[in-house]
Design a protein that fits this description.
Number of strands: 0
Number of helices: 4
Structural class: mainly alpha
Radius of gyration: 15 Å
Helix content: over 70%
Strand content: under 5%
Amino acid sequence: MTNPSKTNNRRFKFFASIEGVSFLLLIGVGLPLKHVWGIPEFSKNMGLIHGITFVLYLLAIIQNKVLFDWNIGKTLLAILLSIVPFGPFYVVRKMVPKMKG
């Protein structure tokens, strides 16, 4: 039988990764395309994708808070790091408990 904590960790890492990548694509590719070359389509589409992944990531943070009994400081730090480039990757690397098996 699958360990629910391990499954939750995988899900959280997935959402954090796609949120982090979508954010980097939005600011690293979308903004230059829009503001330097006047091509707003990529930014518009990537903004929608990033918005959806951001909400999923926030829900995953709340789920981790409940499942792993994160204190309010750790929870707020994970949320704050979601608006920093590479922040979600830091959260996954340093704040998600390591699971064996």
